[in-house]
UniProtKB/TrEMBL annotation:
SMART domains: AAA. It comes from the Bacteria. It comes from Actinomadura harenae. GO terms for molecular function: ATP binding; ATP hydrolysis activity. PANTHER family: ABC TRANSPORTER, ATP-BINDING PROTEIN (PTHR43335:SF4). Residues 2-227 form the ABC transporter domain. This is ABC transporter ATP-binding protein. Keywords: ATP-binding, Nucleotide-binding, Transport.
């Protein structure tokens, strides 16, 4: 379990993390998402004790990370691509990691099996494509069979099939009772992997919930309307208390009135309708509404 209490980090005039409180528990994949500069990487560094907080606390399994005995057996961490010598073979790199942390060498074969590296053990690291390099990093986090995993961008660098594999692995690991915290800039890349989203924007926690929770919170019912005279209809809808914006040159997006009410108004106004379609909020749209134009494409 990871516990954050009023966690704050300021750099002179910039607040990178702003009074953040959250509990990240076992059994689910929790994704920390937000645009570039939202504070995700700073938050992970605070959790791992790489930078001191200005205020507040961050604990892992009830202790500061620096106070954990045998940290590699407690927490598996991947913040950057694995810092491995390109001339080393995959198996040798993992074996060195294991032995330097008191982990039995047999664990190397086990994590290679978990991460699809069985056939890559003799390859030199400099020859690995980005997807296999990321698998190697994930394999390193699993060597100690830790209860907690912290992985920055677990699907970045993968082709779609690899991203699906990573999501399935993370869910499997969480399903076995581990605490799994991952990060990403694009919420759609983590939709299939994460059970819970913590959305950061400018250092503040602006949403916390499942994909369905985020969509429901954003789901002001709207109706797409196409007609012969959208300008005139927009004025009449606004006068009736609706929210109206142009979706394109001849289409309106209307909130605050049901489709049946809009239809009755068009009949009274003698406006010919071409389309009247209820709209459904997507997870991506809910995320964009939370973080605005700063979201990465």
């Amino acid at each position: 379990m990871i516990e954050l209490r009023h966690l704050t980090k300021r750099y002179r005039t910039t607040t990178a993390v702003d009074d953040l409180t959250a509990t990240i528990g076992p059994g689910v994949v929790t994704a920390l998402v937000g645009p570039h500069g939202a504070g995700k990487t700073t938050l992970l560094r605070l959790v791992l004790g790489l930078v001191p907080p200005t205020r507040g606390t961050a604990t892992v399994m009830g202790r500061r990370y620096a106070d954990l005995p045998d940290p590699m057996r407690r927490v598996g961490v991947l913040l950057d691509p694995p810092g491995a010598h390109g001339g080393l073979r995959v198996r040798d790199h993992l074996l060195w990691l294991a032995r330097s942390n008191g982990i039995p060498g047999r664990r190397v074969a086990e994590v290679c099996g978990l991460t699809g590296l069985e056939g890559a053990g003799r390859r030199r690291i400099r020859t690995l494509p980005p997807g296999l390099l990321l698998r190697l990093g994930i394999a390193g986090t699993l060597l100690g069979d830790p209860d907690t995993l912290i992985i920055d961008g677990p699907t970045t660098g993968f082709a779609p099939a690899g991203a699906t594999w990573a999501g399935t692995l993370l869910r499997t690991l969480a399903g076995a009772g581990r605490t799994v915290l991952v990060t990403g800039r694009r919420i759609d890349e983590l939709d299939g992997a994460a059970d819970r989203f913590l959305v950061l924007n400018r250092g503040r926690l602006v949403a916390d919930g499942s994909a369905d929770d985020l969509v429901r919170a954003d789901a002001a019912e709207s109706v797409l309307v196409r007609c012969d005279d959208p300008g005139y209809l927009a004025r009449r809808l606004t006068a009736a208390g609706a929210g109206v914006r142009f979706a394109d040159r001849d289409a309106l997006l209307v909130t605050g009135l049901r489709g049946a009410d809009i239809h009755r108004l068009t009949v009274r106004c003698a406006v010919r309708l071409h389309e009247l379609t209820p709209q459904h909020t997507t997870l991506e749209q809910a995320y964009r509404d939370l973080v605005g134009s700063r979201v990465a494409r």
